[in-house]
UniProtKB/TrEMBL annotation:
Protein name per the record: Aldehyde dehydrogenase (NAD+)
Any one GO molecular function term: oxidoreductase activity, acting on the aldehyde or oxo group of donors, NAD or NADP as acceptor
Active site: 249
NCBIfam families registered for this protein in UniProt: PRK13473.1
Sequence ranges assigned to domain Aldehyde dehydrogenase in this UniProt record: 16-471
Keyword Oxidoreductase carried by entry: yes
Family, per entry: Belongs to the aldehyde dehydrogenase family.
Amino acid sequence: MSTPTLQNFIDGQFVHPRGTELLDIVNPATGETVAQAPVSSPDDVDLAMKAAKAAFKPWARLTPSARQLALLKLADAIEANADALVEAQHRNTGQPRDTIRTDEVEAGADQIRFFAGAARLLEGKSAGEYIEGTTSYVRREPIGVVGQVTPWNFPFLMAIWKIGPALATGNTIVLKPSDTTPESTLELARISQGILPDGVLNIVLGNGSTGAAIVDHPTPGLVSITGSVRAGMAVASGAAKTLKRAHLELGGKAPAVVFGDVDVAKTAAAIADFSFYNAGQDCTAITRVLVHESIHDELVEALSSEAKERKTGSADDSENYFGPLNNINHFTDVVTKVESLPDHAVIATGGHRVGTTGFFFEPTVITNVLQSDDIVQDETFGPVITVQKFSTEDEAVELANDVRYALASSVWTTDHATAMRVSRDLDFGAVWINTHILLTAEMPHGGFKYSGYGKDLSMYGVEDYTRIKHVMSSLE
């Protein structure tokens, strides 16, 4: 069977790119090449930008109810094409199919419906006579064309997070999916045909050079990325050259702060779920467990036992709690970080590759680490967690906040006052109490510090894709 060559989606049609370089798309569960994707050139990006620019005014001038109707139809079409979306993504990620279906496709359809409703709920300052003889009011308008870059860890869902608020508010889009996971995004484009007007959603395939061409292009008024800190810095720097707005959802190093009054077995099971989900390839995943010294040894033992129960590496993906690491470069990076631990660190469980086919890695628990260790300070983005002990609440908060990332965190305790104080003091964009990682369309998601700025989801995320205009009229 020949390997298919993927195409860009521009102005409502799949088109051959002008760039001639091709990238292999590899199924990380098998190591097999399943497709080839083009590296779109600046000319390809320019073609997509022109299509998006031409489509902008007609789309922006639709009533919010008309855009809502289109998004509701798109959500229905996503559900009707769930099988195709699941298979397209599974080929590129190796994730368990049930996980893709439930946590990305079904959740994505639900979130599109939220954004559809949000299209009709934009708010601004009340009109009024703030200067005698005049009336002022505020218009909340779409920005125009927006450039977007999505990651490989949740390819379909992250595309939904990008396009949902942008389309609801009347923007048009040029989006580049990750170079290793483009197929579910292309399937989304196919589904959108006949629902979204031509040129409203455009997909260009490629690598970092294609993303840079989107950022450098003069047309977008905003560029948005979900990705690494390094990539986010490059986007912010590139956007600054032409004073584009930037929307950055970047890395994380989420702590779970566990006090001595918890049910250890129940807490360990929950932390294992939230740490090893999607092979830890989630910027909100628990990566650091900070536990009170009174239950440290008991929790480490329980966590290690729970880690061993989270299976991976089976050829039958229904048997896996999580799938493989996404690509050979990332797999090598995770292996190197674990193999390069300082001598004082102890691997309580895991630490090795699973099998010889694909990029599977064991759930791994590491103890006896220091706050200054690279494994504590730097994002691993794999099924790897560290455990540190603390003696006081102040020490716990200090250790939790002492990293450059500030996206997600959680506090585990049965004491309400402790939960309120610690959630106040944790310097992260999200704080969960006795749970972790759960997200809802109605609530914002985004971080501080090196985790970026701007919000996804919620009305805050919707407003990020708008601009504010003051209009004043004389009453005479």
